[in-house]
Design a protein that fits this description.
Elements lengths: L1 E3 L6 E4 L10 E8 L2 E5 L5 E2 L5 E2 L5 H4 L1 E3 L7 E9 L12 E4 L6 E6 L6 E6 L7 E7 L7 E7 L5 E6 L7 E10 L2 E2 L3 E6 L5
Antiparallel strand pairs: 1-2, 2-7, 3-4, 3-6, 3-8, 4-5, 8-9, 10-11, 11-14, 12-13, 12-15, 15-16, 15-17
Length: 196
């Protein structure tokens, strides 16, 4: 199988095209953390194999997005076929992908002055290596990566943005990062105080 587009909780799986008749059915197996599960009709993982035709599994172009996966976990997917006589093939070549880390939570801003503000967030995953800090004053222009903070491995993490312009609205983003990629970005915004 081919695996694509890992996110925090999903991986796309495609069964390549083959010369089997269109009525041939396939079961997709997932292996992770010494556990074996199977892709279900609702695209989550379950205990028993589910047999569907190539087109029912989304064909070789669309595939199926397997949902409900754990973050920062390596999954190996493979598939086997069976014909109308219930004769099964061995499992074929596998594809492997690792889901991304979980995003930080509860991003807030406090200690706002005319030239600085402090960001606070909850570390939601034990295996990130760092947090990326993004900032902009115009959302339409996009966020710019301005700094990174080492991982905290639990609890509340803080970052103070300094050298800011007074009476200016700042939009901030924070994401978790490790060797598997970057989490979704969480956002907060605040305005620096005026100079008295």
């Amino acid at each position: 199988v081919v695996v694509l587009n890992p996110s925090v909780s999903s991986i796309k799986v495609r069964i390549p095209s083959d010369p089997n008749p269109s009525v041939t059915e396939y079961a997709i197996r997932a292996q992770f953390n010494s556990t074996t599960k199977y892709v279900q009709i609702d695209t989550t993982l379950g205990d028993n194999p589910v047999w569907r035709t190539h087109s029912q599994w989304g064909g070789n172009l669309v595939g199926v997005t397997v949902k409900g996966l754990s973050s920062s976990t390596t999954y190996s997917f493979d598939a086997k076929a069976r014909n109308l006589d219930n004769i099964e093939t061995p499992y074929g070549a596998s594809g492997t992908a690792t889901t991304k880390p979980t995003a930080p939570a509860n991003l807030t801003i406090d200690n706002v002055t005319s030239s600085s503000m402090r960001l606070n967030w909850t570390d939601n995953t034990p295996d990130e290596t760092q947090f990326y800090i993004y900032r902009t004053t115009v959302v339409e222009n996009g966020y710019v990566l301005i700094d990174s903070v080492p991982a905290a491995n639990g609890g509340t993490v803080t970052y103070t943005g300094v050298g800011l312009t007074f009476s200016t609205h700042y939009f901030w983003g924070v994401s978790a990062h490790n060797s598997n990629g970057e989490s979704q970005i969480v956002y907060a915004d605040a305005t620096t105080k005026n100079i008295d």
